[in-house]
């Protein structure tokens, strides 16, 4: 404004004596300076608007893809295990329970976090639902890692103590372990959060004053206890279990290799000496230790035993990769969670994008497990393929069934089977053909008449 007043005459008399032309010039100068002051910052802001908009859209798209992948992938695991009898073993019941926990993480934890990102950090569901969200997030994340801990213990007994495994992992013990896994996280999530034990009094006051903000701020005591129960202690147990599994699997593999070599040498020895002395007399002359080695080698070279050992090692490798992926995804979050709580926000300030990143890297683990199953486990890969094919066939049959009532039916008696071809009258749908037995012709004719 000082620029405008400097251009105006200092004499008030002359100012009031301005004619219309001069007054319009001053008015145009005022408008030009005002527009220059207001439009220049907006033009700078518009130049920065497009990259930030692109990054926000990319971030929301990635979050939405993680949610959809977690829901559909874990649902595929559950359906595949229930549909295929070959996958109905004790370990896969833990896997199904883990998939259910990951689905609930996607429904409750991810969706609420996604809504906060969409609204720009505003919480729109109220004070009570903020506690519900935080409780469910802690609950299902803890349940996931406890499932993986149970899977590691199950694989340990299956590989290290294979003879005692049917006696140790019974159906009763399976139900007991799953009950503990699903009930114990409630003592760490719902009880402390709804009672207000998890945070500081200042944060509780701030939440009451600002109900549109939902931030999970914890005190040091809860941070140490919750991180230990949810991550550090089960993680150490899993690392120890899989180290023992790796050592035992390596020992069994070396033993199997030596047994196969011993069996080959024994067969070669019998063939060479059997030419002159006869196999019967040679077997009688062999000492007891050689007979023992032969029986051990024969048992080790049994195709059923060998295939079972290979299958156990593959399952252990797959589940080991799952645990490694879980630790890799959740380790950044729990490091940030403990360090930021112990040193305080004054010394360890975390930008909002860092908090969002560590949360969603942890969430990504819920969508990663089905991909690991499909890539590393052949049985799951075959079951996934069959399940997806069944879904596609069911979808195509449903589409054709909807169009079937208005479509003409043509029958062909060229063979023992009758092909019913359904084509829409407007030719918008593709041709749907099915092989129909002769006994089903009457049913299709009656449906066409109706």
Automatic annotation (TrEMBL):
The keyword Transmembrane helix applies. Residues 73-373 form the G-protein coupled receptors family 1 profile domain. The chain crosses the membrane at residues 52-81, 93-116, 136-153, 174-198, 222-245, 318-339, 351-376. Keywords: Cell membrane, G-protein coupled receptor, Glycoprotein, Membrane, Receptor, Transducer, Transmembrane, Transmembrane helix. The keyword Glycoprotein applies. Its main location: membrane. It comes from Hypothenemus hampei. One of its GO terms (molecular function) is octopamine receptor activity. GO terms for cellular component: plasma membrane. Belongs to the G-protein coupled receptor 1 family. It is found in: Cell membrane. It is a multi-pass membrane protein. CDD domains: 7tmA_DmOct-betaAR-like (cd15066). This is Octopamine receptor beta-2R. It comes from the Eukaryota. GO terms for biological process: adenylate cyclase-activating G protein-coupled receptor signaling pathway. SMART domains: 7TM_GPCR_Srsx.
